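Records of this kind hold a single protein each, on a pair of labelled lines. Below, a sample record shows both lines together.
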Amino acid sequence: FDIQNKVQTATFKSGNTYQETGWYKPVTDGTGIKYSVTIPTGTTMITNDNKTYKSGTISLSQQQQFKLRADVGFSGTVTFSANTNVLSKYALLFIPSSGNVQKLVSIQQKNDPKTVPNIKATFYKRSAKGNVIKKDGTSNTGLSGAEYQVKNVTTGKTWTVTTGKNGSVFWGEATIGDKLQITETLSLIHI
């Protein structure tokens, strides 16, 4: 038993409020195999039968694939393992110290189930940057000194920005999916 694609980086599609990995696919030549995964903090597990799990240890059959999802603001690498009900076999070989004793081999069943370690998913905070350009309506030149209040409606954070000499102002960085409200608080009229 093993997991294909053990190390993945989540991707983001425009319009989504989440990022997600590709499918983690179990590979085995046995039957009746089960495996369990503890969902890493900050992520959600989606299985290929369209079930969603937000926390805990989830038991899956060998046919079930899964992927991990996190919101766009989540950043970091999570590492976890898959524990199985597969018991590994091993051989015990007795090699005598003298030539007149028979060599013995004994096949034994190991008591500990097989674990697939070091399954990883890396997530990056998805953010957007933006700016405003204030221009004179007649000459189309940039106006400096115009003030704007920027409110991140999603987080509740509010701040003020002022246009520079070319009429441009960078309003900062926001997580993709956040809703911003930009209000001009000091308007300039070019004479």
